Structure formats: structure tokens, C-alpha cells
What does this fold into?
Amino acid sequence: MVQDPSDTRQTVMDEALDCQVVIPTHDPERPIRRAVDSVLADSRAGVIVVAHNVDESVLDIPDDPRVLVVALTGAEGRPGAAFDAGLAAASAPWVGIMGSDDWYEAGALQAMVRHGKEDNADGVLTPLAYQDGTRGLIPRTFRNRNLKAAEDRLFYRTAPLGLYRREVLQSPEYAFGDEYPVGSDVAVSTRLWTSGLSISYYPRDPAYVVGADAKERTTLRPRPLAEHGAAWLGIWDEPWVQELSKKDRRALATKILRVHVFGAVEARPTEDRWGESDFEWLADLTHRIVEVAPESLAPFRKSSAQVFDSLLARDLPATLRAMQEDRAASLVSKIISSSPTALLSREAPLRWQAVAKAEEIKAGVAATAARLRQPERVSMMGREGRPRLLILSFSPIKNDARVIRQVNLFKCDYDVITAGFGEAPEGVFEHIELDSALLPTALNGKLITTHLYHRAYWSMAAVKDAWEALRGLKVDCAIADDIEALPIVVRLKPTCGIVADFHEHYPSMHEYHDAWKKRISPYYSWLIRRYAKHADVITTVSFGLQKGYEAQFGFKPHLVVNATPYANLQPGKVAEPIRLVHSGACQRKRNLEVMLDAVQQSSANVSLDMYVTPNDPAYLEELKAKYATEPRIRFNEPVPYEQLVDVLNRYDVGVFILPPATFSYRWALPNKFFDYVQARLGILVGPSPEMAGLVRQVGNGEICQGFTAEDLQIALENLSVDKVEGWKQASQKAAPKLSAEHQSGAWVESVEGLIRDCEARPPGI
It folds into this structure.
């Protein structure tokens, strides 16, 4: 059973973002714009900037609806409080943290979200790189999924850089807190790695880059060791650390000794570099670690172990001499553990270096394969090596808002080839015009009755015409708009892959007709089962359809709602009478009389203008004749889609009452809803779950109690100028986030991902 998404899901406003990254800033001189821009380069990513004791107005951050600024005062010098404030404000399914000096390589966030979903992970670590171009191999492991703290050396990732399910990082047990000036992430990461959560890591994915050009990094500021390492000492007093397995405690202790204790000595090679109490404090930390986990010293080479022995003896000169000897140790001695029994332990130098070498070899093989394949890929590309993208739709493409949206998304970076009815859309590389008199729904009744569905499809004149027009076409990727286009695209075999965009829930389109439901619905179910598995990515238009496909066919399409391109408009002043408007297709099954009867029967001071396309000319003429004597109702000529929003902006309230005659109608979230938002109108809808859910969230309209003319009439009688003014202002506020530019990320990421994976594929595969 599909549940009402208005009650059980995040709405489109939230669902539009796959992830949000929290970036605290404590200093307006930080290069935060670079960090923010690297996140926003992913169309489905948002940023939460925490202005920590900083005036928001002086920050160099873009004016983008995906940027949320959280002001935080107090907790001076305590960055953990800023991370907590940002995470508390997050609403996207995946969240992460980031330093204001750092940035993501292109595609890093997309890759983590993809792995998180595919692996059903609780968190995905990002690879690390540095501004000088080097890459870090932390943690060192051969596995990608379900990493374990000790086995996969997770403790070496002190900062939990990556993406995590929002409910994880919003849990109190993973709070950063405001206790420490540095190291507030120590307890967070330790708990993450040891809590049984599913963690993934793909070291050759695009990386998180640690910047090195800032004037000063908070974590690198010179501090007394007692202050710098307080978090590392304090962690051993945590009850949950004492309850860790012996293996995990040992691995954690070895990491602290290797990185933090050893590193502190290495950074202070002479006695004059040590502060007044630094050495005593470090000796105390070493004693505490060895007390809790005495086996933690075993994996170290003999010369390194001598450094720790001297620390335990509280002998500073001996400690410094041991450090010098360790630096000068031979290559062989550097890979031999001081304890023979620990020679092959995971923390021993031998295995530590072996993992690094193996990963280096794997990366080299992948790079070589990519270079060898490059000449082959170039020959398949279009102008200047641009990928060739086919968009196939059995529709008048110039008037198909959703298809035009696809064209506009890709035409700047791809050689877009369209195939469909009518003339070419603006800006495409090539257009293949199909015969509009031939429709892919003209099925052979005998073949359908006898369940010869394969012959029924391929014998249709429209399909034959399209195949002959496209046969032999070489493209890198293809978008099949609707199920009727998918088999043709599958037969074309695009080099890199296929995106199928399902605009309807096809088996239920006309389920109100028993004969259709009995004969045609099984045909559409067959098409889906036969060809959907060949699509690399499937998208659909609403949460309800998404759930319907998952329930019936076992796959869950990505969501790309029918959003309208952003329009830079202002809400017009509400008129009297209040101007209602409806736009869309004139189809009998939509029962347009509901809206028309409501106005005719109402005493409200309103008018209704209809801008409908003559999909059913006879039905349109019936409506015009029936309401010809009603002066408040006007039928206007339809306008080109690119002009529609500007025309709608002249009105006050967009109306759409769609009785739930079919599954698709019940779960409809149509173009016109988003047209009304971009036109800055108030909205009146029936209790359709998708539309009603958005109206509730945005606050830009009213939901009728039912789908009858009487239900709409009641809403009309309750209209007022002030109420409609408020609705229009709410649409104004929501317009950026509900725009096509903000809601189309799944298409862009899917096509880019297919191209990227294709380029990384070894030759011959």
C-alpha cells in the first residue's frame, strides 16, 4: 500500500537536496567562498554556513537558495559548538562537515551519495587530498564496505570527513560539544567507528582537499600540549571507551601513540622547542595509554619503541636521542616490529606499507586503462570532444515542457540530438522529426488479445518510423521519455548508458476503463518488465509514482518533479474580482467541469480564465458552449510554453482540481503547479497528496476538502484579498527552491555519472 506522502515523507522542498555540508567560519578572512562553491557545484547539494561570532553580512558567500546561514554567538574558540549548530539545522538525507579552508573535487559529493545509497551505508568517508596535489591513504584498507574500526584502521581518520545519514549526526551521542578548542571530533569519530554503523570508503573517488593557503588554520595554531591534546587524554575517561573490545582499544591506543604522541616529539626536535609543562604532559598521556592498552606498543619498530620507553621514563634528552636514531634507521629495521609476535599485525609497519603499495598499484592500473581507452572515446564524441546525447520523445517536443527542460539542461555541454514530433527545439545539435500522424499507442488488437506483446510493439507504424529514422545513430547517452521510447533506445545501444524518464504510471493510466485495464494494462506492465532493466537510471515525476513502481516492479526511480524554470518575476497586486486561472490540456478525463461549475455556482467575486490546449477538440467546444453565458469564465487561446509564466503572472490564483480517477491522477504533481509558483500565484487544489503536501509546506494556497465543484465553491467563497496576497508572497519565497534549475539534479548527475563511468571503463568492456 502506498502511504500518503504528505504525512510520511519529506516534501519536494527538502527532498530536492541529497546532502548538506556544514561549514563553520570564525574569521571573515577565511577562503569560505571556495569551500561553498565546491559544494554548490553539485546541483543537489546545499551548504549550512555557521557564522560563529561573525557578522553574516561580511562573509563572501553566494546568494543561492541552497545556502543557509546559521548565526552562533558565544562558545568562543570552541569550533565543536559551531558544527553542532549547523548539523541541528540540517534537513537533507545526508550531511557532512567541512573546514572553511578546504574544498571538494568535482563529483565528490555525488559519489558519496551514490555509494551511500547503493551500499545502504550509514556513512561514506571521502578520500583525502592535499593542496600540493598529493593524496592521503587514510584509512588503509582493501575493503570498501562495512569497514571495522580495528581491521580497517578507521581510527586514523580523526576527522569524520564524509557524508552520513542525517539521523546519525543529529543523534546526541555524536555531538561535538564545546569542551575543547581543538580535537572535538576525536570522540565523535571514535564513536562512529566503534558503534556498529555501516561505513563505506572508496579511495579512488574524487577527494576532499585540505587547503594549505590560509594564513592560519585553527587546528595548526601553536598551543601548549595540555590544550592541544586534551581531547586525546580525556577520551580514556569515557565509560564507553572502557567498554570497547580489547582489539579496538589496542588499535585506538596505537593510533594515538603513532600519530599524536610520536608526532609531538617529532615536531619538537630540541629541548628549547618544548614548553614548560609539555614533556610532563606528554609522558602522562603515554602512561595513561599504555596503562589502558599495554599491547599497543608491540607493533612499533624497535627504534620507535625506544622513543616511547624514554617518554615512560620521563627522560627528555633520551627521548630526543631516540627520535634521531629512529629517523636514521635502516630501511629493513623500519619495517620490523619490536615484538616478533606483532610482525604481521595490522598495525605493524610491514602490513601498513603493504596496503599503501597495493593501493598505489591499483591506482596506476586504473590510470593506465583510462589513457589507453582515450583515443577510442574521442572518436565517438561530437564537436570538440563533447558527448552526444539523444533525447527521444513521442511528443511535440517544442511544446513538451519536461522534454524542453532536458534540452536546456544539456545543450550547452553536450551535442544534443532530439527525435520527436514537430520542428526542432532551440539550441539542439540535430533534430530528427518523426511523423506526428503515427502514434505509439495504435496497437494491433489481435496481437494484444493473444499477448504477443513483442510483435505488437515493434509492428506499430510509429515505432517502425522512429527506428528507421534512428537506426545506426551513434550516441554516448540517451534519454527515453516515456516507456514507448525506451525499447528503441535500448536497441540503439548508447555507448555509455540510458536514462528512462517515466512521466506516468503506465499500467494504471486508464484504469477507470475496465476493458483498457484488462487488455492494455498488462501490455504496459510487460514493456516495463522487459525493458526497464536495460535502463541505467530511471526517473519519474512524483513520490507517489516512485512508490508505485517500487511496489509493483521492485525498482525505485529517482525523483525529478515537473518544475518550471526560474522566472525573475514579482507578485502582482491582487485585483477585485480575484482573478483565477487554469492552464493545461483539455482532456475529458480531467473533468474540467468541476472548476467551471464551481465558479458558475459561486457568489464569490472571482473570474476564471482558461488557457487549455485542444487535446480533445470536441470536448473543448462542448465546454465553450456550456459556459458561454457565464461572463466570469473566459476561454483563451493557448500560449507558447515559453510565454506561459509571464501570462499567468497577470492573475492571482492558479486552480487545479483533479479527481483521482487513476493512480497517476491521485499522485499527480504536474507542471502547472510549478508554473503557478513561478508566476507568483496563490494555488487552489484538491486533496491530491502530492500537491496538497507542497501547498501545506510552502503555505501558498488552500486545499479543498474534496474534488467536487461544491468543495471548490466553499473555498472560493472564503477567498479574500489579504489571504491571496499572503499566498502570492509565499510563492515568491519558494520560487527559487521549486525551480527547474534546483530540481533537475538527478538528470544531470545521472548523465554525467554515465559518461564518467564510461570513461573509467577498461577497454573492451
Observations:
- The CA atoms of residues 596 and 633 lie 8 Å apart.
- Confidence is low (pLDDT under 50) at residues 1-11, 357-380.
- Residues 578-743 form a domain with the Rossmann fold fold (CATH 3.40.50.2000).
- The chain has 32 helices and 24 strands.
